[in-house]
Amino acid sequence: MSMDPCYRILLEKFVHLLKDANYPIDKIKGSRTPVFIGQFTNDHLITFHRSKVENETNLLGPNLGLYN
């Protein structure tokens, strides 16, 4: 089974977070512990600038989210 590298890094960071907080992973193992994560990236903007977008209004507002 393979895993997306970004998900793997995220899981590794979560484990580091628990260790840094001195919180034993066994306390949450098997529990229904939610994890909330916020993320932002502008990789799509770099792609569009390279592709010479004809209509730049497509890069504004809600349309921007469609290109992620």
From TrEMBL:
Pfam families: ketoacyl-synt
An example Gene Ontology molecular-function term: acyltransferase activity
Residue ranges annotated for the Beta-ketoacyl synthase-like N-terminal domain, each copy included: 2-44
Coiled coil: none
Protein name as it appears in the record: Beta-ketoacyl synthase-like N-terminal domain-containing protein
